[in-house]
Structures are given as structure tokens and as C-alpha cells.
Amino acid sequence: MVGMRVLPEDSDVTPSRTLAATDLISDDDRSVAADSWSIKSEYGSTLDDEQRHADATEALAAVNCRAASDYSSDKEEQDGEGVSSMLGFQSYWDSAYADELANYHEHGHAGEVWFGADVMEIVASWTKALCTGICQNHLSNHVGDGEPVGLPQKDSADWSVLDIGTGNGLLLQEFAKQGFSNLTGTDYSEGAIDLARRLADRDNFTNIKFLVDDILETKLDTMFRLVLDKGTLDAIGLHPDGPIKRIMYWDSLSRIVAPGGLLVITSCNSTKDELVEEVETLNQRRIAVGNQEASTDSPPFRYLDHVRTYPTFTFGGSVGSRVATVAFIRN
Would you list the DSSP string of 117-184? Predict the structure, then answer.
């Protein structure tokens, strides 16, 4: 367990008190949590460092002390190769959005923009251009097969758009600015949906719909022409059962992305190549299952394009960027 203090077997020291949950949290975890709590955007923050560390410690304690049944897993210990984090738990997000709601009520701040406002604007404008190309029926798959993609449609403004893990809903506001009008945001945190609705009303984006829904167990019975994910797959992958939940994630998306529709994923934990590889693995799994069941269904997704304008850096001879945005077409 991270940060657990263990007394030597031959120690004569007797603890003067029972260890509290906060004692089981390392300084590194406190620092990471506090950094994630800080609002790194133009929208501002009223939380000082001491308060951010206190809030983060409280959230970490809540996560570390959850009952084993809450993990939906029969594994007693996390796999050595896996990487888990409090960001993979709903309890973290419920606590975070409770704080952001309070901050909004007191100061009118919109809250944190994950990956930054600049990335959000790039995702919206780049995706708009991608949809326009599909509407004009001249966009080809960059893999090289040269086939037209998507379903012909005169105006992308009519596309049905779903943002999964919408958080404060600001990404959908950017899409509304790009001319999209059929917009829906979902999140499994009621606090996030409450905040998103309030911000949309305040900013006069009253056409955006917000619903409480968990993408892994979605109750949505509608298919969408464009589905957005900004950081949701990242958070899912940080749960101790991340590999299983990622499979659930792709199964859900296979049901809600309309045939010929687009899935646009923005990630800070996966590179473009890693996302493409994950989709190819999904396709191979579907093909194997289809062969066993004598199904003729085609693989659900294929790579279409990715954002090429993010700032890059070089490390160890490799070139990369801190964010990847990749579009997949639903077959």
C-alpha cells in the first residue's frame, strides 16, 4: 500500500495512536493530488497550496479506505505492471466537483479545464474541420485505403454530438461556438452534471443537454454521429481494474457511435500510436469472436486522423507531445 508505515519487528516503540487514513498517504501522492486539484486555467482558483493539499489528502483517504467490494475485482493486489490512481475512482470526482460547485457558488469560477483551454479549442476547431470534410465527401482515411469516410450530410451542425465524461461541460460549449447544435454531455458524477448545467445556463448555451450516465454501464439508447472523450479513457485506465474497464468502455462505444460516425479521443496518458494499437487489438478480438460465432460483422472502428499541431518535445531520441487527439471512424 502506498505510504504505509511499518514498524521494525524488534522495535520497542509502541504507537501512541491508531494510524489514521491520512497517515497511509505518501507525500508524493499528496503532491500529485494537490497539483491535479489546482485550477490551471484562465478561469482562476481561490484555493491556496495548504488548502489544496488538505483537500487532496481527504480524497486520497476516501479512496484508500474503500471496501474491497467497491473495486469490482476479485484480485487482492494490483498487478505489478498496472498503474492505478485515485483519479480512477468516482469518489475522487464526486469530491472534486463538490468543491468546484462550492467554488462556483462563492466566486463564480467555472473550474478546471483539463489539458488546458488551448487544447479544448484545438479539439473543437479541428473536429469541426474533420466533420466538414466528411460532409463535403472528400475526406479519405489517412491510413491510405483512399475510401471516402462517414455518411454524406450537408451540414455538420446537425450532427448529434455526445461528450462522455463531460465534467464541467466546457468542451461542449466550444463545440456550440463551432456551430454544432445537437449537443449532449454525460458524466457519472452528479456534481459534474450540476456544475455543467449551471455554467451552460449562465453562458447562454441552453441547447446543451446534460445527463448523469456511466459510459461503462450506459443507459443511453440513442446512437450519436460524433462522440467525444477528453480524458475519460485516461481516468478509466487508472482504476485498479483498468484493463477490464477499458474493454467495457469499447463495448459501450461500439453501441452508441452511429455507423459512419466519429469517435474523437483526447488523451494525456496514451500516444496516438498507443490509441491506434488499442483499437486494432479491439478489432482483432471482435474478429476472433465473430469467427467463433460465424458472424460477418466488420471491426467496429478504424483510424481516421489525428491532431498534428500540438507542441512537441524530444526525449531520449523520441519526439512526442503532452496530449494526443485521435479520430476513429465507426465501420
Answer: HHHHHHHHHHHHHHHHHHHTT--B-TTTT--B-S---S-GGG-EEEEET-TTSHHHHHHHHTT--EEE
